[in-house]
TrEMBL record:
<comment type="function">
    <text>Catalyzes the first step in the biosynthesis of NAD from nicotinic acid, the ATP-dependent synthesis of beta-nicotinate D-ribonucleotide from nicotinate and 5-phospho-D-ribose 1-phosphate.</text>
</comment>
<keyword id="KW-0328">Glycosyltransferase</keyword>
<dbReference type="InterPro" id="IPR041525">
    <property type="entry name" value="N/Namide_PRibTrfase"/>
</dbReference>
<dbReference type="InterPro" id="IPR007229">
    <property type="entry name" value="Nic_PRibTrfase-Fam"/>
</dbReference>
<dbReference type="InterPro" id="IPR013785">
    <property type="entry name" value="Aldolase_TIM"/>
</dbReference>
<dbReference type="Pfam" id="PF17767">
    <property type="entry name" value="NAPRTase_N"/>
</dbReference>
<dbReference type="GO" id="GO:0034355">
    <property type="term" value="P:NAD+ biosynthetic process via the salvage pathway"/>
</dbReference>
<feature type="domain" description="Nicotinate/nicotinamide phosphoribosyltransferase">
    <location>
        <begin position="152"/>
        <end position="338"/>
    </location>
</feature>
<dbReference type="GO" id="GO:0004516">
    <property type="term" value="F:nicotinate phosphoribosyltransferase activity"/>
</dbReference>
<keyword id="KW-0436">Ligase</keyword>
<dbReference type="InterPro" id="IPR006405">
    <property type="entry name" value="Nic_PRibTrfase_pncB"/>
</dbReference>
<feature type="domain" description="Nicotinate phosphoribosyltransferase N-terminal">
    <location>
        <begin position="7"/>
        <end position="131"/>
    </location>
</feature>
<protein>
    <recommendedName>
        <fullName>Nicotinate phosphoribosyltransferase</fullName>
        <ecNumber>6.3.4.21</ecNumber>
    </recommendedName>
</protein>
<keyword id="KW-0808">Transferase</keyword>
<dbReference type="InterPro" id="IPR040727">
    <property type="entry name" value="NAPRTase_N"/>
</dbReference>
<dbReference type="Pfam" id="PF04095">
    <property type="entry name" value="NAPRTase"/>
</dbReference>
<dbReference type="GO" id="GO:0016757">
    <property type="term" value="F:glycosyltransferase activity"/>
</dbReference>
Amino acid sequence: MDYSPALMTDMYEYTMLDATLRDGTANRKCVFEVYTRHLPEGRRYGVTAGTGRILDALERFHLDDEDLKFLSDRKVVSPETIKWLENYHFSGSIKGYREGEMFFPNSPILQVEGTFGECTLLETLVLSILNYDSAVASAASRMVSAAKDRPCMDMGGRRTNEWAAVAAARAAVIGGFKGTANLLAAQMYGLKAIGTAAHCFTLVHDSERDAFASQIAALGKNTTLLVDTYNIEEAVKTAVEVAGPQLGGIRIDSGDLASLAQRVRNQLDALGATNTKITVTNDLDEYALAALQTAPVDSYGVGTMLVTGSGAPTCAMVYKLTERENADGTMQPVAKKSKDKASIPGRKLAYRSYEYNLADCEHVISGSEDALAKYVPQDGWKDLLVDYVDHGEIDPQYQGHDAIMAAHEYRAQALAELPITAQSLMKGEPVIPTETTVL
């Protein structure tokens, strides 16, 4: 589908643009911030993901003649605003947490600086990407921790919207997964693609033996055979007879996975297939993976719970104006005072402090541009912000396959720097506190 990311907005972003172009405030310099007021209940940390997709969308964030005609025909904006939109190009700057970085309540995950007119149009796109991708990456990270050293693979494409499936595959790899069954995601982002056969493949053949022989003939002995269509014990025996002890793997998709894996492992070993791997699937989440830690399982395929954030499909991130140019041209911190939704004024710096090589606090420093320029963090504090866009110029190191792999490695490092309770699946408070200082 050919579409413009510039229409992946709520209508009020364009009506606000229209009104501010009329009254002259559209060109005021502004700073918007993305943060979450709280983590999902009981979660200890979140994982940032989606920023690379925002940069990809930003490259295509413009309106063609058909899009402008739509806005005009619907009378969403005035003819004068249509004229302004003809030449729209984001010329501002964006900084934030790198993909794979841990975040906590009030972490300034992304800061967007530019004119009000150009920044306000990005709100829905930015939030829809960051909220979903970070939810999936956070769930994936918990699952990877629960799986210990056993690889997890994304198999969630059929459990969510078709485009969300592509985003989820990317976010899952940032969260620690090793590959995806989604071919479009594999193509777009250079991810490892995985997959063998479904139960229907066995059922369409006259016998299970015929199905296994067909798959091995097509994919080789290193393939993984699905063994729970009929009787698992008989299927494993047939699989080894057809492929020999060099059979690459078998997959179990139903039943008591731990006890079945144990029986199958013993059976494979008795048949001489000591190197044949066991993969399990079937509605896994981080708790199921933790319960399988003592079972002889080699890898996992995870679907529904991955692509739905394992019960937390959004991170509740918001996009708020924190600083704007006033009538005399001076930048002025601003904030909401709404009950339970108050925001912290000013642009932000963000650091993490450590004791004995373990993170002990997230430090958010808020203030004017001049005040922040003079701020000196304490020795050993880690600067959490990177520059993604500088006056309209996107840094390409945060896009594409290499950026995803870098984020994959960074997540593991960042998680290892947190207290070990971060990896607990029991409900609790964020593993480190966030301290905010307003200069």
